[in-house]
Amino acid sequence: MVSRRAVLRRIGSVWRLRLLLVTIGALLCGALAWQVALSQLRQGLEQRLLVGHRAIQTEIDRFRYLPRVTGEDARIHAALSRPGELAAIDAANRYLERIVAQTGAEQLYLLNADGVTLASSNWTTPNSYVGHDYSFRPYFTDARATGNGAVYAIGVTTGEPGYFIATRVDDPGLGVRGVMVVKIDLRPLEQSWAETGQRIAVTDKDDVVFMSSIPGWRYRPLTPLPAPVRARLGASRLYDSSELERAAPLLTSGSTLTIEGQGRATTLRSPSFEQGWRLLAATPLWPARAAGGTTAALVLLAGLLGLGLADLRRHRQRLIALRLHQTEVMERKVRERTAELGREIEARARVEADLRATQATLVQSEKMAALGRMSAAIVHEVSQPLAAMEATLTAAEFSLSRAPEQTAARLQSARGLIRRMQRMTRHLKNFSRREAAPLSPVPVVEVARSALALTKPRADAAGIHPRFEAPEGAPMVRAGHARLEQVLVNLLHNAIEAVEPGHGEVTLAVRQEADELILSVWDNGPGIPADVLPRVTEPFFSTKIGGEGLGLGLAISFEVVQQFGGRLDIRSHPGGGTEISVILPLLDGTETKEAAE
């Protein structure tokens, strides 16, 4: 059996091998990305060199033949032939000034055979070339010797750099007469390179940078200059006032160029052209390094992620197998538990059947108890009239022969007791079943006035004059006319009986609130106690001590109002009177109009 430690060692070895392979792959991908990015940088440098070379060559070719063409003019030959004649010199100056204005050259000037300026396009400026000796300039010595000369230099008179192109002016009979020179300003090219973010420099045949988009590179050698070269440049004063002798070389170690703020750079140089010039283009290496590092990091991350996902997949497979095994175990336990629950369900079903039987027995017992209480109330209400009837009829039998007039009164009393029992049975019938009479639109104010008229005899007997408050118009509700009238009569009778005879106040008010109609009966009686108020609508519950009260009036009223789709609201404060309100849905205008039609 393999030990746990051996398994862990084997897993660790496998993981180390995988990490090594992933790291090697990431380094190879990073190196490939470095080479691709470096190749793209060099392609960009080649394009910059090509565009820069064409721009310089085009700018120079615009003025290359200007000295030769200008030197053929008669005014130039006249100035060379008669240098002491002011008219001839003035004509040459004005001619050169006009040529510069038309061609766009920076300066155009004429040197005699000794290198002294006879005429110049800037003859009217403080920095005029007229009278200056430029015989030390290489462009003069080359033009005098070979016929043409050119050099890039800093002007000793103006201090402004430019490219000087010179052509010898000959006379067939007299030989060399002078040299015509044009100065070209190439600084706009430097400015355009700087504005587009290019890092370009132009070096002369001695590898001295004389044009650059980066000011810090200008007038600095690429490598340390030999002593003879420094002496020759000092004698020709090409880079006068540039401190070339103290300038540090750009290539600090071999061919490495450092860009300030961006580290090492890769460089590319063009073939030589135009007096041994060469273009130098540079770009920082950090984009290539960033591409290589980013690629290596991404590949390493992807490899680690792949290893993690593979390991996660293996763990997932193991987990699935474990869960399947656990599922089988759980299913077996569920089957066992299901059998146990089945037995428990059967036992509970038997218990529930016994409980339902017991509950049915209890309900039946409660029904019998309720029937017993109701029977006791009915027996109580019926036994008194029957006993009174028996006594009355017995008295009538004895007085039939002795006092006939008393017999009539007793018979009248017996009829009253019979009517009381009939009224009680009628109330019980109304309470036990709902009336099936249909509902119809009823004018509320008319019903209220009819109820007041029916209660007037009892109110007059008690010395009460009920008040009636009703709104304008004829509001209507959907109800039964007679039953609504019965409810109002019952409420008015209760109010009349509750107040003090001769001093009580009873009010019947009809009002509208939103889409409801409210009929309120208010009295200033003693009110209903708080502990009794919830029971006043129960059947056979009454607060009256004697009289005809059966405790069914409010119960019947409550049932009737519910049949109408309304509700009964009872508010009472001990010592502050009672207000009972019948709240019914109010018919809208369309139903009221249909009822009227």
Summarize the structure.
The protein is α+β, with helices and mostly antiparallel strands and 597 residues long.
Detailed description of the structure:
It holds the Pfam family HATPase_c. It is a multi-pass membrane protein. Residues 377-588 form the Histidine kinase domain. InterPro entries: HATPase_C_sf, HATPase_dom, His_kinase_dom, HisK_dim/P_dom, HisK_dim/P_sf, Sensor-like_sf, Sig_transdc_His_kin-like_C, Sig_transdc_His_kinase_DctB. The structure is a single chain. With 597 residues, this protein is of the alpha+beta class. Among the domains are: 72-285, 2-Layer Sandwich (Beta-Lactamase); 437-596, Heat Shock Protein 90 (2-Layer Sandwich). The protein is built from 13 helices and 18 strands. It has helices at residues 4-63, 66-71, 74-81, 86-103, 138-146, 187-195, 227-236, 286-402, 404-432, 444-461, 481-498, 553-563, 589-596, and strands at residues 107-112, 117-120, 148-154, 161-171, 175-184, 200-203, 209-212, 251-253, 256-259, 263-269, 278-284, 440-443, 467-469, 476-479, 506-513, 516-523, 567-572, 578-585. The strands form four sheets. A six-stranded antiparallel β-sheet has the order 7-6-11-10-9-8. Helix 10 (444-461) runs parallel beside helix 11 (481-498) and helix 11 (481-498) packs antiparallel against helix 12 (553-563). The radius of gyration is 65 Å and the shape is elongated.
